[in-house]
Amino acid sequence: MDLVEIKDFRKSYRLGIEHGMKTVEAVKSISLSVPEGALYGFIGPNGAGKTTTIKTLMGLLRPTSGTVKLMGRDPLDPASRVQVGFQPEQPYFYDYLTGMELLMFYGRLSGLRGQELSKRIEESCALCKVDASWLSRRLRTYSKGMSQRLGLAQSVLHKPKLLILDEPMSGLDPMGRRDVRLAMLELHKAGTTIFYSSHVLSDVEEVCTHAAMVVRGTLRVEGLLSDILNDPADPDHRQKLEDILAREVELA
Amino acid sequence: MRELMWIALSSFRETVRDKILYTLLFFVLLLFAFSMLLGEWSVFSQQKVVTDFSLGVMSLGGLAIAIFIGVGLIQKEIQRKTILTLLSKPVHRWQFLVGKYLGLVMVLVINILVMTAALWLVLKLSGFPFDPRLLLAAYTTFWEMAVITAVALFFSSFSTPVVSSLLTFAVFLASHLSGGILQYLETMKKAVGKIPGATPLPSYVEWTAKTVRWILPDLEIFNIRSVVVHGLPLPDMYLFWATAHGIGWTVFLMALSSIWFSRRDFV
Questions:
Q1: A158-167 pLDDT tens trace
Q2: Which of A11, A147, A251, B180 is the most exposed place for a label (fewest CB within 10 A)?
Q3: Which residues pair with A218 in a beta bridge?
Q4: What is the value of ipTM here, to two decimals?
Q5: Contacts of A56 in chain B (CB under 8 A)
Q6: CA distance to partner chain B, nearest, from residue A161 (Å)
């Protein structure tokens, strides 16, 4: 079963009066599907339309045209998000809440209660390397790396079937990136389907089972990573994602 | 319904820990203290001046909270992008909006209680008794605050914070003044027949004032200051109708805000 289905997706925005009410096409044409069990890398240069696609998947934006389905439903329907975890790019949280209050709040909104919630907070924090001592601190005192880890912890609290992460490694130091990568691998091993956008192509090459490449709002490459990396001209030669991306950017 | 409660509680926690609330409350309490001086300087009854001025400050304090906190309630979530994580949970957008509103209403209740306690203290320090009917004025002021906050939230669901603040202030002003303007027009109409040389005002002035009165919530209904201060009787069922007016407008504004909000893109 495909947990994410995107067909002929297009998204355009109308700019404000200060920009002459011009229309900008953020996504021109994207069609992809994320099968259950995949660890799916969504890659492309800045401004390619990755975040727009992810926000549409989470029901934060409405598609201009095309079909977008999350867990087989319209993303605007809250029921589509029951079994989905999401971490936005550079997550921001409420300044005056503590880490624990935030996790309790998001956990409750995800349907967790009482003992189960406390247990899941403990497990998620351990997985995402969120130190227990941080949880009593107000979120305004958190560093970027701490917020990023807490962001990941809140997204996995309810053991989602599908995890959608927008640039989960952005702003992290090498150790932080390693921890997030390991957490993703562990979750994937436990059966979670992961769809994430990234600029770190070497990570995608290393951990993903599937990938999609978007350039200037158009999907250029999609499928099993092994197929993508296979060089059709020379079956013994594995291409690098970096080279494929450079080629596609030139062609686009 | 549980989602509403969790969002309201979190919104309440976030607001009561915000320094801006205490800054506003500090100025309101300062003005309460000022009312004692004003009472002493005044040639009218000191008790009436202190009470009238303090109740007026209570209403303006509510306006300030509605503008500074109510407008920012949603805008801050959008600008700081905290809304992205929250709306990724299985909640409806209207639940988010109403939850945030209810959280602020809880803060308003506490504010009203603090301001009423301050009024009691000011009266006690000035040597005057606390008329229990002041509680009725505090009650209607609460509803005025609740409606103005809903107005602020409505504007902020589709416009920028500055525009929302200006529009909220305009609604507050127009709503309080439209009744007075209509009364003035009525008096002018009568004067035209009786005073030679008096000319009637153009009909569009009356039409505009009446339209404003109809399309905006009537905030004057919550103003029972003069009735309480001068010990006048309140008409039968007045509080019931004032409460119904408050609930009706709040529900209507929240429904409109939810419709706008549900169509919005969070870029």
A1: 999 999 999 9
A2: A251
A3: A29, A215
A4: 0.88
A5: none
A6: 14
